[in-house]
Amino acid sequence: MLSQRIVLHVLLASHGDGAALTVVKDCLTTFAQTHADLVSGDGPLTGVFSEALHQLYFGTQGADERIQRFIAQAHHAVSCLESGTTDGREKTDALVVQATPLLELLQEITLAYQQKMRSVETASLKRQSDIAERLGNISTQSNIVALNARIAAARAGQFGREFAVITTVLADIIKEMDQLIHSVVNTHSADEASPRSSVRPQDQHIRADRAFQ
After folding, report:
1. Per-residue pLDDT tens over the stretch 35-89
2. Which positions ≥6 away from 38 have C-beta within 8 Å?
3. Residues 202 and 120: beta-carbon distance below 8 Å
4. CA 171/CA 151 separation, integer angstroms
5. In this predicted structure, what is the pLDDT of residue 67?
6. DSSP characters for 121-185?
7. Does the global pTM surpass 0.85?
8. How far is CA 148 from CA 1, 29, 169, in A?
């Protein structure tokens, strides 16, 4: 995860690896910006978009505050290492102490996004199933109407010829509707077999996964 890379390169920098400081700064910039986007939103992102995530970030877990504190500590450690002050080691040690608890927190956040994504997928598939069922009912009723219309036209004999033409057109429309329904049902079946391939992941979910790698 990105937070672990930050801690690792701060440690390397504390042992004299100058290049590690550049890596830390880049990682910190990405980590801080991504966290801000996930919490506050950025363009198409809506920020914290569910009650469960809101509780995780701002409730008893205090994820937002803890992540912000880690970012501040990392910046402070980098500043101390760059300036060569004597408390650089102390700041580095304090950052290392935060590494494992923060990793557990970030894993919990990632899991929360994954669970939310699964619920979105389930809801999407349920809507598709409902639409397919409703279309099927409409098709069945339309076929019954068309059949009754043909019978009525046949009974009317010569006077039912024009009506028979209408029933033929109606039958063609119903046939097209049946083809559409079969297409929807087949798509729904494929989605059930591989739901993640049919539902576009939420941008927040993608951003969260990338942020914590």
Report:
1. 888 888 776 667 788 888 888 899 988 999 999 999 999 999 999 888 888 788 8
2. 45, 47, 48, 204, 207, 208, 211
3. yes
4. 13
5. 94
6. HHHHHHHHHHHHHHHHHHHHHHHHHHHHHHHHHHHHGGGGHHHHHHHHHHHHHHHHHHHHHHHHH
7. no
8. 67, 70, 14
For 51-62, letters b (16+ CB in 10 Å) and e give: eebeebbeeeee
Contact between 13 and 81 under an 8 Å Cβ cutoff? The reply is: yes
CA dihedral sign of residues 159, 162, 165, 171: negative
CA distance 150 to 160: 9
The CA distance from 209 to 213, in Å, is 6
Report the amino acid identity of residue 76.
H
**Identity of the amino acid at 162:** E
Q: Name the H helices within 41-87.
A: 51-58, 63-83
Q: How far apart are CA 61 and CA 106, in angstroms?
A: 11
Q: What is the rounded end-to-end Cα distance, in angstroms, of the chain? A: 4
Query: Which amino acid, residue 63?
Result: A
Report residue 194 as tokens.
Answer: 């591989």
Residue 160 confidence (pLDDT) above 70: no
pLDDT digits (tens, 9 = 90+) for 161-197: 777 777 777 777 777 877 777 776 666 566 555 544 4
Looking up tokens 């919490």 gives: 39
